[in-house]
Amino acid sequence: MTDAPPSTVIADETAYAEAVQLALDSAAAYYADGTSTLDDDAYDRLVRGIEAYEGEHPDQVLPQSPTGKVAGGAVVGDVPHTVPMLSLDNVFGADQLADWAASLERRIGRPVTAWSVEPKLDGLAISARYRRGRLVQLVTRGDGVAGEDVSHAMGTIVGLPDRLADTVTVELRGEVMMTAAQFDEACAKRQAHDGTTFANPRSAAAGTLRTRERPYVCELTFFGYGALPAPDDSSELATRLRELPHSEVMGWVSGQGVQTTDATPVAGIVAETLEQVQKRVDEIAAARPELEFGIDGIVVKCDLAADQAVAGFSSRAPRWAVAYKLPATEKITKLVGVEWNTGRTGIIAPRAVLEPVELDGSVVTYATLHNVADITRRGLMLGDSVTVYKAGDVIPRVEAPVVHLRTGDEQPIPIPSVCPSCGDAIDMSQERWRCVRGRACRAIASISYAAGRDQLDIEGLADNRIKQLLDAEMIADFADLFYLTRDQLLSLERMGAVSTDNLLAAFERAKAQPLSRVFCALGVRGTGRSMSRRIARHFGTMEAIRAADALAIQQVEGIGPEKAPVVVAELAELAPLIDKLVAAGVTMTEPGVDPSGSATSAPELPLSGMSVVVTGAMSGPLEELSRNQVNELIERAGGKASSSVSAKTSLLVAGEKAGSKRAKAEQLQVRVVSPEEFAELVSEFLP
Ligand SMILES: NC(=O)c1ccc[n+]([C@@H]2O[C@H](COP(=O)([O-])OP(=O)(O)OC[C@H]3O[C@@H](n4cnc5c(N)ncnc54)[C@H](O)[C@@H]3O)[C@@H](O)[C@H]2O)c1
Ligand SMILES: [Zn+2]
């Protein structure tokens, strides 16, 4: 988080004028009712682009440009502020913070010994005017000089009392926002009223604060971050507020019964050194995903009134404070689909498929939608532009549709009427839908997968047979199959002696499958057939795989730092199952791999170092093999099975009806062999 994020590239004067107009329109919508078409990241990139263009073409700067103005110059007000309500300058990382602090200390001519460090609340600034202890007026920030009267919102803002503890005359400044719970409720109310919703808590707060007449009332939250006496007030309190350190002013504010962030995990602190400031910045950033309200950075202020007074203000922002920005946690993207999955416990959960979007350091393609109620409560539709939230390690979630970006082409989201995994009924009595089979539902799918042709290849074990065995509680997972007795199987309905013996023989054959298939049967997330083969060939034994930590697992080609810990964690979870497999005598080694686990490409193997592609119909000794089995054969013989022909391909095995891959191989002068020739080459590895 050290560098400033990128900016929009502006090519010429026309593009510049368009960019300025877009920034003005967006900011006007953003501060008015939160209906901007841009997310914050896009807006910030745009403004940085405008700034960069203006730096290079100072003669072309338009008077209405948003740069250097409070609220991007897009807002006006008619209630003058007693003291301007300004913006904050930004820093992006520790180095920039240190530069800012150094220049501030040069300006005031002494080191700053006390820094106040607070969260930057992501809402709307408001000035709350109290006269003799009574709340008399609420004013928005506006253009910084004058704001808009929003006194109608009095009484709907938690944390902003009608009366203070003392009969004092004072102006409180702070942020109006919505907590996650308030946002949910606001969405539900609006959904019930006009079938639409708010895009995110900040725009819900903006819309709610500024709308005078709404048939429904939404609750807001206030957090104070400053108190100002009137400039001409010379009372004892006014003098005290002017002279106290910021942190003590905030103590006084909360003593008046006004909410501050004091009781939250991101309470303001006073730091003596920049190291301590940075430590608190990191703590606040780490706490962000769990907060009940949005923050978009950390505000660092000179705590001492004397330092603030000497530092003063620029026309746009105080010089004694700075915003340490955190990466955006929310973006607008498209909802392209909804998938339904039944989880381990039988819970049926929808998952949003998104147009990929970069968020807080990773690309997000899927996001949680929690449950059906969540979809209806938000009135989500397929094709909607949606706000997606992700911070740190939290699972990304779809916050809401951006209703004002609808085109009319949006479609209702299909809701399943039966369990997507087993086809049985859905228990809809709770908000979280469940398959009526509960945990057993997942078991059917995972056992059926393990028994599949490309895994343990257990012939004669159809899904209804698996259901029967689960219902009779003879098995709970696929390892239990290897413990079934002849008598148990015979006791099942529609199960004769012949099928019983066939099934038992299939179980015996399954025990002899190589490690790569046994591993694949485990169904570890992200490890399909070819990945399982790679893992098996890399480690050689199940013991070695189980002993591997994330770093060791990452040595396998194709497993990155994100996937490795998942594999390790899932294997740990599967330990009891694997133990049962071991005890049942299932094969736990990979043929042809040195048990030390190292050698995967011994030079004496016929295909070592070769990338082999197979296409067309197999014939001769390969005729009976599935494509997966041919691929296994290639890897046993030391080669790498690949699915497409490229310049890196060493060999194409082309059967009849080979088609385009053959043409491409010829064009690239890749060696082409028939299935028979290939069988000859790898004869000692044939199954
Ligand atoms: N999506 C859009 O179209 C769009 C348009 C305009 C602005 N924006 C977003 O708004 C941001 C600029 O917002 P801004 O001009 O309201 O604020 P700012 O970034 O200039 O910061 C100043 C504001 O910080 C707030 N604040 C929060 N916690 C505070 C604390 N502890 N102490 C002091 N102040 C605190 C106050 O409201 C203050 O007015 C941009 O970075 C952009 O992301 C988005
Ligand atoms: Zn089910």
TrEMBL record:
InterPro entries: BRCT_dom (IPR001357), BRCT_dom_sf (IPR036420), DisA/LigA_HHH (IPR041663), DNA_ligase (IPR001679), DNA_ligase_AS (IPR018239), DNAligase_adenylation (IPR013839), DNAligase_N (IPR013840), NA-bd_OB-fold (IPR012340). It is an enzyme of class 6 (ligase). Gene3D superfamilies: 5' to 3' exonuclease, C-terminal subdomain, BRCT domain, DNA ligase/mRNA capping enzyme, Helix hairpin bin, Nucleic acid-binding proteins. Pfam families: BRCT, DNA_ligase_aden, HHH_2, OB_DNA_ligase. NAD(+) binds at residues 40-44, 87-88, 118, 141, 175, 301, 325. The keyword Ligase applies. GO terms for biological process: DNA repair; DNA replication. The active site is at 120 (n6-amp-lysine intermediate). Its EC number is 6.5.1.2. The keyword Translocase does not apply. Zn(2+) binds at residues 419, 422, 441. Residues 602-676 form the BRCT domain. Belongs to the NAD-dependent DNA ligase family. LigA subfamily. DNA ligase that catalyzes the formation of phosphodiester linkages between 5'-phosphoryl and 3'-hydroxyl groups in double-stranded DNA using NAD as a coenzyme and as the energy source for the reaction. It is essential for DNA replication and repair of damaged DNA. NCBIfam families: dnlj, PRK07956.1. This is DNA ligase. It comes from Nonomuraea soli. The gene is ligA.
